[in-house]
Design brief:
The chain is mainly α. It is about 40% helix and about 10% strand. α10 packs antiparallel against α11.
């Protein structure tokens, strides 16, 4: 229901195209209850998601100090994510679960074999779309809610992990999640990827240690791409607001466009 309501309010440019709605019941999906009749979105087919794409790109690019997804595609991804936030802000919605897995990718007729061989900074051109509004909520609904929407810890802002802070999700916490998606796209590894203990993960997230635990290869990538590094620091460490991030993007992006 969240998905159906939200898509009816968007022009869909940064988001996956919604082609319609159909209803499913237990005859179509056996795990449903006998009387269930649930709306499902018909969405544009995409080739893969950002996580799987980066898993392909990482092995061939690690060690050359280049942005794993490529500079051009990094800025394209940043543009889509920022524009998505602008739309959500205008309709007073918060996504609440922005993460790499919720970014779908169209490879634009490139095969995985071509992706493994091509120079990602010059030749490959991907299309990105934001998906999954299951946790999305309007600002008004959030203020009246007694619990927080479901979120993914690795991409969650520290203040939302600290239950004593009583901080609610906002455009600013969505923006923080975008910063972590862009960090993942830059270094090819998801935030806190090498942390396996839940309590340790929660401690690191709540104390914002995502940069502190980066390995040398990841640090070298960021140090070799200072404009991108500064954007990530603005969003993740300095917690700059959306307008400041837009200004930085418009000034320094490498795809000659403005938001």
């Amino acid at each position: 229901n969240n998905n159906t309501t939200l898509f009816s309010n968007l022009d869909n440019f940064p988001f996956i195209e919604c082609l319609g709605v159909y209803y499913i019941n237990k005859n179509l999906f056996n795990l449903l209850k006998p009387n269930d009749n649930l709306p499902c979105l018909i969405l544009k087919k995409m080739d893969t998601d950002l996580v799987k794409l980066l898993e392909i790109l990482l092995p061939q690019n690690l060690g050359n100090n280049s942005i794993i997804i490529g500079n051009k595609n990094f800025w394209k991804l940043a543009k889509i994510l920022i524009e998505g936030l602008i739309i959500l802000q205008k309709i007073n919605y918060i996504h609440c679960d922005l993460k790499s897995l919720n970014i779908l990718v169209n490879l634009n007729n490139h095969s995985e074999e071509e992706i493994e061989e091509e120079d990602i900074n010059n030749n490959l051109d991907f299309e990105f779309k934001i998906i999954d509004f299951t946790s999305a909520i309007s600002v008004n609904e959030l203020n009246e809610s007694t619990k927080l929407p479901d979120m993914t810890i690795q991409f969650t802002a520290p203040e939302l992990i600290n239950l004593n802070s009583k901080t609610l999700p906002s455009i600013n916490t969505d923006l923080f999640s975008i910063g972590l998606i862009l960090l993942h796209a830059s270094i090819g590894l998801p935030p806190y990827y090498n942390i396996n203990t839940p309590y340790h993960l929660i401690d690191l997230v709540s104390n914002l240690k995502v940069f502190d635990i980066l390995e040398r290869e990841s640090i070298n990538i960021l140090d070799n791409n200072l404009i991108i590094k500064e954007l990530l620091i603005m969003i993740i460490i300095k917690r700059s607001n959306l307008n400041d991030v837009i200004d930085y993007f418009n000034k320094f992006n490498e795809i000659n466009c403005k938001i």
